[in-house]
Amino acid sequence: MKGPKIRERPARSSHAPSTYIGAVGRTRVVVFSGAGVSAESGIRTFRDAGGLWEEYPIEEVATPEAWARDPERVLRFYDVRREAIIRAAPNAAHIAIAGLEAGFDVAVITQNIDDLHERAGSTTVLHLHGEIMKARSTADPTLVTMINGTSLKPGDRCVLGSQLRPHIVWFGEEVPMIPSAARIVSRADRLLIVGTSLAVHPAAGLVQLAPPHCEIVLVDPDEVHVPRTGVRHIKGSASKGVPQLADEWLSEKT
Ligand code: APR
Asked: What's the pTM value of the predicted model, to 2 decimals?
């Protein structure tokens, strides 16, 4: 039987990251991640060679105008992404990031719409650009539901009777989690930036809010311009560089 695959109940929040303050007396580690952290889980990045935006023009699938013009195309685009994410598993980088909680107060701020940080065990994850496993009402953006299954279809409606849309921040839309993320970064003692080209604002601007004493480490196989001095670059893949750094940080504690 065909029908909406939407559970009409509020979605679990991402561990209330908007109210996260960190524990007194513990070193606060903030992880700022992008598509590269999930690349070795088989999730495509956006701007590398063969990246998603080469195949799908942003203006056809990831803007409010695209949604108004051709919602079915937009829904199909995210259905394919969702299927890939459901099949994927966290990699060594996600697991090492979750493992940092053994020694530090950790908040993950991710631009990714996948749930691989949560599935690896991270407990405080703020999604700047939304979450692919959730849908929200087009009538009331506060009505968010989990998607039960892989697809969202025209005719899948919220409790108010309006069409559901992917719970994604599209280009040209406000990024409602920015103030919470800014507060978290501004209190960081250590900032790990991993797998992001820092090409998209306002997200990329967050790294400038780290306080002067904050140790900043970038893990990325490519050169990435981080608008700060004193940034250490571990030039390599997330699955190698992140566990290496996590071991280093955790061993300093013993
Ligand atoms: N390990 C670590 N980093 C990697 C790996 C890897 N295995 N493979 C690629 N990278 C790096 C690339 O070198 C690049 O710096 O990941 C980064 C990916 O950059 P983008 O594709 O631009 O992804 P991201 O920075 O997350 O994009 C930001 O743009 O289109 C929007 O909303 C989308 O959240 C996304 C935002």
From this structure: 0.92
